[in-house]
Amino acid sequence: MTNQKSSRLVQQQIYRNGIFLSSDRLVPEEVAIAVSFGGTTHAVMMATPDDLEDFAIGFALTEGIIQTISDIETINIVAVDGGFDAQVTLKEQSRAQFHARRRHMMGPVGCGLCGIESIEQALRPVPQLQDANAQFMPKDIIDAMALLARQQKLNDATRAVHGAGFYLPEQGVVCVREDVGRHNALDKLAGALLRCSYGAGQGIVAVTSRLSVEMVQKAAIIGVPLLAAISAPTQLAIETADKAGLTLVALVRGQEFDIYTHAERVLHL
């Protein structure tokens, strides 16, 4: 796999106590990452260039292109001018479904209904949570966010990236992924979970961002019963989580948090 450093030192001028000083600062890299299937570029995102195989897998999962890791034949990360191309080869059945979907999305330019498909994709229904019996103590939510912060090595160094972590009761945060983009961090985590043996239905996903509807959609597709965030949710995120059977917890700060949907999954002390 071709990769590059996820951060670098830059020169800066800092103003402290009325004086300008020269200094160095570590900042995260942000490059273009293309995700291609069968030689066709499907999307290009600006992202941090590490854990790119996880990113490609998680993106394919949350976009509905694959269902399991076995749908993928190979992944190659290729350096290109300005970034990387995550080249994914799908197994035959998934490849046929992907090409059929691509053909369906192509329509005449300039027609009055051209945006319908993209709107439907943006507001796509999310799967219903399968493991409805998972329950957690308040301490689990608090610990998930605190442990995520402690394991964000890139953010410790740069203070400029989001994190997504997977927490299991009695085990703690067992997987963390970081990126300059909150969606990318969650996709990277989704890919990592798909590749390992952790059961998503028994844990918590904690994120260092606000809760938009896209974050809820991705969490529901991953199959996690509880999504916790350091910031607040949008109205559509709350509505979508409620329909999916997902417990949505926001504003996790210190020993406090707010529950917006399916509060029965969080046990009272």
TrEMBL record:
The answer to keyword Cytoplasm applying to this record is yes
| Gene Ontology BP, a term | Mo-molybdopterin cofactor biosynthetic process
Q: Which UniProt keywords apply?
A: Cytoplasm, Molybdenum cofactor biosynthesis
Fetch the Gene3D superfamilies from UniProt: 3.10.20.10, Cytidine Deaminase, domain 2 (3.40.140.10)
Where, subcellularly, is it found?
A: Cytoplasm
Q: Which GO terms describe its molecular function?
A: sulfur carrier activity; sulfurtransferase activity
Quote the catalytic residue positions.
C111
One Pfam family recorded for the sequence: FdhD-NarQ
SUPFAM superfamilies (alphabetical)? Cytidine deaminase-like
Q: Which GO terms describe its cellular component?
A: cytoplasm
Keyword Cytoplasm on entry: yes
Q: Which family does it belong to?
A: Belongs to the FdhD family.
* Function statement: Required for formate dehydrogenase (FDH) activity. Acts as a sulfur carrier protein that transfers sulfur from IscS to the molybdenum cofactor prior to its insertion into FDH.
Give the matching NCBIfam families.
fdhD_narQ
Name of the protein this chain belongs to: Sulfur carrier protein FdhD
Task: Tell me the organism's taxonomic lineage.
Answer: Bacteria, Pseudomonadati, Pseudomonadota, Alphaproteobacteria, Hyphomicrobiales
